[in-house]
Structure formats: structure tokens, C-alpha cells
Amino acid sequence: MTTAAVELDPREPELIETGGSHRARHVAVLVGVPVIAVVGALAIGAVLIAQEGENPFAVYADVFRGVFTENRGLRNTATSATPLLLMGLGLAIAYRARLFTIGAEGQYVLGAVMATAFATAHGVRDLPGVVLIPSCIVIAGLTGMVWSGISAELSNRFNTSVVISSLLLTYIATAVMQWLIRVGIKDPDGFVPQSRVIGNAGLPTVPLLNTHLGFVIAVALVPIAAVMMSRTRFGYRVDVIGHNPIALRANEVATGKMLFAVLGIVGFLSGLAGYIQVAGVTTRINAQFSLGYGFTAIIVALLGRLHPVGVLVAALGISGLNIGFDAAERSHDVPSSLVAVVQALLIIFVVIGDAVANRFLRDDD
Amino acid sequence: MTMGTETRAAEAVRVSGASKRFGRVTAFADVDLVVRRGEIHALLGENGAGKTTLVKMLAGLETADSGEFWIDGEPIGDLDARSARDRGVALVQQHFTLVPTLTASENLVLARRESAVLPSTKVARARLTELVDRFGLDVRDGVPVSALSVGEQQRLEILRALDADAGVLLLDEPTAVLTGAEATALLGVCRRLADEGRAVVIITHRLSEVIDGCDRVTVLRDGSVVLADATVAEHSAAGLADAMVGREMGDARHREPTTTADGDARPARLRVDGVSSGVLRGVSFGVAAGEVLGVAGVDGNGQAELEAVLAAIVVPESGRVTLDGEELPHGRPRERIGRRVAYIPSDRYATALVRPMSLADNVELGRGGWWRPRRQVRQRAVEDRLARWDVRSAGAAAAVRSLSGGNAQKLVLARELDEVPDLVITCHPTRGLDPGAARTVAERVLDAADDGAAVVWMGAELEEVLAVSHRVIVLSRGRITGTFERPFDRSAIGLAMGGASRSTPPATPDDDSHGNSGSGS
Amino acid sequence: MPITTMNRPPRSRPIRLAAAGVGLALVLAACGDDDDEPAAEEPATEEPATEEPAAEEPAAEEPAAEEPATDGSADAPKLAIVYSAEWQDGSWGEFAYDGANALLERGVVSDISLQENVPPGADAQNAMRALADDGFNPIIAHSFDYGDDVKTVAADYPETIFVYAGGFGDVAGNVGDYSQPFWEPAYLEGILAADVMDGAVAGAGGFDIPVCRAMKNAFLAGAQTIDPDTEGSFVAVGDWYDVQLAKEAALAQADAGATMFIGCGQGPTFGQIEAANETGGVAMGYVGDMSELGESVLASFTWNLEAVFELMVEDVVAGKTEAQYYEVLLGDGGMSVVISPAWEDRISDEGMAAFDAALASIEDGSFTVPFDAES
After folding, report:
1. Looking at the 3D structure of chain B, how many domains does it have?
2. B366/B429 same-domain check
């Protein structure tokens, strides 16, 4: 290149797509910041554990043991990572498009409810799994899609904020679920409000992995999402709309359509996650079905740096922390809120780390 | 605020041997600059020559890699924003730093806080009024800054600088966003400020402003000083332009149409029939192959709407737009591009480019299939084209935001014009570019016309429109109030822009083809 | 459990807010005095200890895992409890926590594992499997909501006794249930309530389940021993945790003349206490001394889970793999009624005498409070 005539604008360095030596540095930041954040969060966690009168190393050893050596540690980690991974993938795509939906939880709940309603309906519940499982996947996905699509439609038509509409729709979805398990899909034999058992629509266990099929589906979606983002026009448009929606509208496609497409994907994956959770884990829906996985998935998407592979790592990491701390809690007197503190610290450190890294990227060369 | 007595010819700023690099890119190297009180000093250079970085450095917003600095004869070791401000150096940046939702006086007091508590609205207003009266820079108060015109916002920026007792005023392209009259007025203000003993540095591209309004000039090219601290009176505009661009400036942008010799019988490729959209009301015209149609008019009279309709972004409320007899695919940008309609907007960063994404990705905007090749393949594929279109950058993987304005616009051309278009829609494509880059851009667009494209050239700069166009239509309040052929009658065009309807020349040449151009598929 | 807490309805904030005062007081107390009350040590197993052995047992005695394991009882069973909320709730959770710790101190068990904040479902199953793998037996799932999970897991661990808080004799194989005979203290409370109040009885439960009905009916029966004309009503709030909803239901009952409230479940109880505070009625605390929660709290009852758990441990020690319905009635020290200090002076001598007489007859077995789950 010619040496001159390039007036850099150093004002807004970002973590996406730059060239040359920059690239290596960006990768370093993308990976390095979370790693440092994990170390930092665990260090502060250790201080808090010591405060409780426990030996932090012993507790962390049990956290590790809980995940890696305890009988079902890895299996449980994979299982509880599944909904986080599915929803995290969708949210990562949406956030790259700067569509900050926080409604995955609602789509998750409704997807689960509709699939369960279908699979436990009279006459349907006796169908074989090969019929029920694909149908439930489609029903749950479409339900999530429609629910998420409401946000897109509201935004296109009335210019309402996706953040707010998606959150409010989550409350409605949860309320609908609470109502349906009391009225519509209630198990007539139960004392408390809950649906029937999903029965034949339950997911089989994968032999070698010993996890339910949903985990395999979720992991299989990671490379698909990665290729979609980096190698297809859709992924390209997601990046363009994230940075400059006007340029997208002038050169590629109407932004409203992209809004539907992106939020539709989030909805589909969230709805699917809901069904998979019922079919692989809870077997039925009760009042405690909504545990906030859809909100944790937001953190997973962000910690995963909005990249499908990162989301996989983050989902397994967050899930592993939970499983590990649960195990540690069984043998040590540490409060159950500790893992929440560690995870919150993790997020704070990543945010700070990014800010600091941006500052360095800006100054040095 | 006593600037004072006879400090004339006293050195306000001296820079010696300053260098600055951003990574592998040199912003400028070994630059000397002297600015004296009582003078207006022009800093001239192409985009990317290093001017902006230089003044930012003087204001302490950038740190030089090497070099020595004196302010008011006093050597300065570390020049940071605070010490610059304390010494009375104030920079008015090209991109305003006002808070758009606050009023002028609120912006004023926010910038220079005397205590932790903001003064009352009344005090703030009084302070603004005092400044306005003293410097004769009129700024409306009481409305959000976003409601002010660009000129007003800039005057407010300058007032803020003066409010801080600026003895050295650095203005980064202050006239780029102003109308001719506003620019003249601004230069008058600068003169007055200089007469009061201040040193004023103006970055500009407009040679006429340098000749008419400045005392001394320093020209930067490719990060080096090519003309140091020269007296303006000793140079001609052409000489300065040569120094700036480093080559002879051609003239003659307008070319005779080459594709068809027979001027009057040319059929229209583009036909606009009774199009209404927003303020645009029933506009009809045609553009032939190889023809450049200029669209003149004061902003807000329908150009923006026409631009959006012709670029097929917006579906017109009524009327139709056909290219070679087929209707433009409004609202389907990919199809518009497939029809080989090139669109070069004035605000390239808003509409044509995605700044954080790479050059290669930007070349791909609106083009390419559902599957994309690997990143490296994509980047290699465009390198050739970038070289052909002289887009100077750190490579196809670099982000567009690292490009200078001229190179960014050349990137747009490399995308839109690489394949010979059938129709070019462009709106002031040279905006904000230095003369060298502007000429390149204009010529490339005219090349497309030579190759048979119909070109619609809209623009705020009447001079430029008249220079490139074969024919000009004038929009006023959404209607065509005049159609003009070469040689252009400027006073008539001016009248038409003011709304006085009537065309001077005979009937438009494309009226012949009017009847049979409708159904073409 | 981590971040997932942020949207978990089952343990909604009102409870924590309402319990905050009690909770804080308990935590302070627990941290404050480290010395064990000797009373906790001495009582023999089956002795009817009316003064709560473990109620205020210092939670500060935390590192339970280590010391007792070395003091000779290492071959004693290891007991585990999972709970859906937090231990320090001044109620349901805290009595379980204290009961387990008391057993550990006495060497009845060699180790305990107490896991809080375990949502029913996958998490609960994971936890119970891990505990069973680690040799814990019995494993106590301290919530009605764990029913399905317990049955699922228990099938894979036939040698381990699993027990959950079903409260209706839901026993099958190695899955046991433990009784919550709260209608007994409710009967005694009814006597006190009718002594200080005129009006009707209002019962409320999270859902219309037999235990809740029985509490209200026993309370009414107790009240009718003082005033035979007393009438009663019952509402199922529809939620175990929604205090606001419960309060609205209680206010509706107050409008219909109710002055004496007996709640089944924390949410319904907290709602009743608030409603009684506003309408001038009296309310009863539910599992735990709730006298601090409002001037309307006339009496509460505490729950001796140490005794209940010990029955389970005995089965394990005896090598049984068949669980049972574990029930410790009031007469055996399973519960005790605590009269709020503010009300002690306002209860008439006759009322107090009737109370004492009824208590004595229950304790000596001459009178059994009927379990009446009919409307």
C-alpha cells in the first residue's frame, strides 16, 4: 500500500472485522478478556468463600470434581447447557444485528407449552415418537417464531422498541403458561397445577453421550450457525443491519424483512429449546417451568462474543459453573448465591475487560 | 478577555519536526508550522494529507510521536487537552460536539463549567447573549440544538471556543457544511477575530476561500509540508492547487456526449413520468444514453425524494420510472442493482458504506450470491479492483472507517461503476472531497456516461452541476420549474430555483420519444 | 442455583420481604451466640420435648461436615436434604436445617449435606442422584413439589430411602412421605383465638388439598369448644407464594365477618397476617414463631423435624429399604404452640385453662384431634 493518504479515524475501534495485524489482536481480545475475567471472578469468589470459613481451594476442587469426575457431572453440564446453547445461538445472531430482544424466555415457555399441549392432547398422545418428536419440534419452533415475530411486527408497524415489547411479551407468555397448566393442559390426576407427562414425545437418550437427543441437536446447530453467519448472504446482512441499517435498505433488502427473519430465528430456537427441555428433562410443565434460562442465555450470547463457537463455550461454561457449584454446595457450607455472585463478576469483568482492551487498541499499534 | 494591544506578528504557535503515525500508517512526518497572532492561516491539503490530525495534535487531542511545540513562544513539553485549553488553544471539529437535545445556552455552559453546579437558565442565556453580541455570531437560543441549521450550530461551536478565551482558534473545515453566503460571513468573522489579535487556522479545500480570506497558507501533501508558511498574496489558486494535488489540475469536466452524435434525436433510457413522492409533485423528465442530467434546486425542494425514488429505495406514491422501458424495481434494491443502476449518494457513510466492515465486505454490498466464498478468497478477489480504482488503504481487510473521505468515495465507485452501468444516480458525489479526489470521482462518473449510461447528477453545488451536466432541470417545491440546455443561463436558473417557473430553451429533446417509451418489456 | 434465580416465580420476593425481619433477627442471633444451648443435647430420643430442642439452634455451627465424622459415629448414616428455597427462611426450611444439624451433633448421623435453592425438576434430580452416589441415606426432598423427582430417582437407587414432604401418606417402596400434622396445633390455636375474638374462622391454603382443609377444620373445632356457634370458611388462593393474592382473599373473608385466620402455606399465611393487621383480627403463624410479623399474630407453632428425620434414620440403621409414612404427632413432641408475648396477657384465664387442658389431653393420648378434610 501507499504510505500516505490514509487518515485513520481512531475514535471508535470495534471488535468486528479488521485486517492485518489488527486481526490477531482482535482474536487475542476476544479470547483473552473472557479468560482473564474467569480467573478474576474465581479469585474474588475465593475471597468470599474464605469469608464463609471454607477453604476456597477445596471448594473449587469440588466444583471441578462436580463437573468432571462426578458420575453425571459432564452429562448434567451438557443437559443444562442445552437450552442455554439453543437460545444463546439465536440471541447472538440477533445481537449482531443490534436487535436487542430479551424475550427468549417467553418464547421458550410458549414453545414448550404448545408442544406439550399437542403431544398430550387426546388422540395425539398415543402416536409414536417418530411422528410426535418432529411435529413437536415444528410446533414449538413456530410458536416461538410467532411470539418473537410480534415484536418485529410491532417494531415495523409502530416503531416500538424490541427490547420492551419482547420483555413484556415474556410476562404474557409466562402468564399464559400458568393459566394453561391450571385449565387447558392440566393433568387431571395432579394436586398441583401441571401438565400431563409428555410421554411419547420425550427425547431418547443418545447411547454413547448418555445425554438426551436435544444436546446433540443443539451442538449440531453450532457449525450451522457459524457457517450461516460467515458464509451466507443472510449472515452478511445481519452484520450490515447491525452497523448500518440504511445501507442495508438501500442495497440489500428491506430492513423490516430482516427484522422478521432475525427475530424469527431467535423465536424458533427459543421455542425449540422449550420443547427440548420438556421432552428431555422435565417431562411435563409445572408452575416452576420458567427458570430464567432465556435470560441466562443473554449472558451466554454476550460472553460467547456473539459467535456460535463462543456461545457453545459460554453455555457449557455457565452450565458447568452451576453444576460444579451445586456439587460443592453439597459438601461445603457455601451459600447457594455464591455461584450467582461469581457469574455476575464474570460479566462485569468481561465488560470492563472490553473497555480496557478498546482503549489499548486505540492507543498502541 | 484582553487579547490585546500590538501582538501582531507574534508567534502564537510554532511546530517543529512533528511526526505522527497510526500503526503502519503515517499521518504526517517532520511537519513545521508557524501561526502568528492577527493572521488567518490556511491549512490546505487533500483529504488524508494529515491536516485534521495536525490540528487535533495542537488542541492536545492527539499525541505526536515526535516534534517540538511552542505556544506564545513558550516551549511545551506535554501537550494534552487540558494544557492546550489553558493556553487558549481551541479546536472546532468538523463533526460537531454539541448535545443535540439541549439548547444553545445549555450547550455553552455545559462546555465550560465554572462550578460543580450548572448556572441557571437565566444566567446561561445572558452569557450566550453577551457572546452573540460581542462577536456578531447569531445563534438562536431556547430551541434544541438539533433544530438549528448547520451554520448556526457551527457558530455556536465557535462561540463556545471563544467563550473559553481562545487566543488560537483552529477550525477544521468550517465551510464544508455552509452555503456560500454563510461561508463568506464566517470568513468575515474570522477576519475580525484575527484583527483583535487572535491567530486563526482554517482547514479548507476551497481555494477561493484561501485566496479571498486568508493571509498565509501551509500546504500539506501525503503527510509532508510542500508549501510552508507562504503569503497567500504571492500565489494563485492554480498554483496552490498544484501544490496540493501535486499535478496539473485539469479543467473541463463537462464533455460532449460521445455515444450518440446526434444530439436531438437521442432516445431516453430513463423516463420519469408524473412521479409524486413526499413533496415531489408530478415530476416528468427523460435522460438519454450518455447524457448527464443535472438536477438543481435549493435543499428541501424534492431532491432527496427524487434521489430515493430513482435509486429505487422508495416506492413513489404515483407515477412510474422506467429504464429502457422497464419499470424500476422499487423497494427491491438487489433487483435495482441487477438492472445495473449505480447509486452514488452524497452521504456515503449513511447509505453506501458500512464503516466498521472491511473494504472487501463493502464491495460486496448489494452484490454476490446466497453463498459467500471464504474470507481470504473474498478479500483477494477485490484487491485488483481496489487497485484499478485507486482506493488507497491498508488492504482489502481494513475497515472502511480507516479510509479518508476521497478513498471511501472511490470505494463506492469501485463497487457501483466497475461494471458499466445503464443508469447512474448520484447526488453531490464530491462532497467533502479535496479537489484532486473530487476531480477523479467526477471523471469516473462521466466515464460511465461516455460508456452509454444515463446519468442523473443531483447536487447542492450549482457550479459543479453546471460543470458536468449537458442539461439541467430545476426543482422547486417539488415541481420542475425549469429545464436548461448549454450554455446555461445562470440568472434564469437562479430564478427557477427561487420558484419562477419557465424554461428558457426550446422543448426538451426527449419529448419525441415520450409516446413510445411506456411499454417496453 | 445461579443466575436462573432472576426469574423464578416459585420463590417470589414477597416471601423474602415478609420474612426479612425474622430472617435478619435469626441470622443475627445465630451469629451472635456461638455457645450451644445444653438443652439441645440431653433429651433422649423419644422424650416429648415441648421446648423446641432445635428451634433456635445456632446456625453458626456450620462446618458440620468435619468434626462429628471423627467422633465415633462414623458408621452412622449420612443424611441429605434438598430444599427449593433458602434455609434461613425462619420457617419450613430453617426447621429442617436445624433438625439435621441437631442429629449430626448428637451423632445420630455421621454427615449431613444440605442443599438449598434447588428447583424441582432436573436440578433436584441431579442433586439427589449425586447425593445417593455419595452414599447419603436417607435423602429428604423437603418440598411437596419434589414428588415426581423423588419417584424418578428412587427407582434407580433401591437401597436408598427417599422421603419427600407429601403429607398424605404417599409411600411406595423406598419412597417415603412425612406427615405435617399441623391440624393438631391448629386445634389448640382455635381455642385461643375464640377466647380473644368473636366472629368467624377463615382458612386459606395454596391449593385445596386435604392437609389445608384439615388445618382449618381443626382450628374451627378448637374455636367451637369456646363458642359453639363459630362458623368457618376456606379459600384456595391458587398459589403457595403470592402474598398479595392471599391478602386479597383474606380481606374478602374479613368482609364476610371473619376475624380468626388460619393459614396453610407461607404465602397464604403472610397474606392473612397482613389482612388481620388491617382488619383487627387475629392470625396464626405457620411453621415458625411469627409473632414478630405483626400485632395480629396470636400464636404460632414450631415443627420438630429432628424427631421426624430421626425416624427415617432409624429405618436406615435398621437396614430397611422400605420407607414409611413418618409421623410425629404433637403428643410426641412433633410440634408445639408458641403464644405471642403481646397476647399472653389478653388471653383469659378460662381460655388458658381450656388450652392447657386440651394440650394435656392430646399429650397423654386421651384426646386425638380428628383429621377432618371434608369441607
Report:
1. 4
2. no
